[in-house]
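Two folds, back to back.
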Amino acid sequence: MYNIVVALYIVVKGDVMLCQFCGSENTKVIETRTIEGQNTIKRRRECLVCKKRFNTAESYEKITIYVIKKDGSRQLFDRGKLIRGIDKACEKRPVSRESIEKAVYDIERSLQDSMVNEIPAKELGDKVMSALRSLDEVAYVRFASVYKEFRDLGSFLEEIEHVVAFTKTNNDQQVLFQEENGNKIKIKR
């Protein structure tokens, strides 16, 4: 019968897994399991020298990302702040919690996949605007009004015209404004 032990850490020498009991490089993988949602792989290993078994966990290392603000200061990327901003834009709109979480996950994942340590606030804001445009046009305009610092009604109208033009080229999205009889409302200056 084999001794079963759970390893709380992994001992690695170069690219070789070492037995935590005898330090031997001669180990073999008995079983591999992927843990969904945690990006983790658990492996059951056996040392071929001392015959003891142990578990290891492998996960990818998240990159620490800093957001470079307009004034040049650096701020640690905050997922919670991103969620709060999108939540505020989607307030009282028919956008599901799941859709918001997926948008945040997609943005965060694209940042991790880019392998950059710093991202300008403008680039991050553009990613949020792109996500909101596909979620809800009103939420998009709300976010844009703060992000782009609209100062007057003309700024709102200009952005709404951009959204309407975008919607016309992408027929799979809903119209921003529609009268009860189904006619589209045209924005005139």
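---
second:
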Amino acid sequence: MKTNETPLQPLKWFINFIFIIVLITIGLNIIGILFIPFFPESKILADFLLVPNFKWELPIIGLIITSILLNIGFIFSLYVFKKIISSLFKSPLFTEFQISSLKLLGQLIIILVIIKTVFIIFSNMIFGESELVGIHIFSFDSKLMAICMGLFFIYLSYVFRRAKELKEENDLTV
């Protein structure tokens, strides 16, 4: 009995698992963020969401909205990555969908890292924390590593586009 096992199968399962976990976690996080204005005296909620004391001020509301948008952006980028992996299973390589999705994923990663960095800076300014944003060069969770991954996906989309052109050219000559 032959199975459709490929080297990408464990990655596909892992991405599906992570996607479900992230949806649940970020969903609960967004619900918690939305409840902060209604329970500003809740010390447990404030500690859990790292918001020391809530007051109805424009900068704090902006941070809440930005936090929700960052979470949605992360879910969307994970969804795009999930779709790319699925398309590598189902469709032939070097499709226009794969090319545009790889480029979109790279752009999303870079934009989200920049917005998250600005978000942390403003959050620290508003709440008076002196913690630096930090670059953490020698770590896989660093901002520089994430930007490099984004640039890699953009470059990979360029490689896929070039491979598609070469494949089409080769198909015409045969």
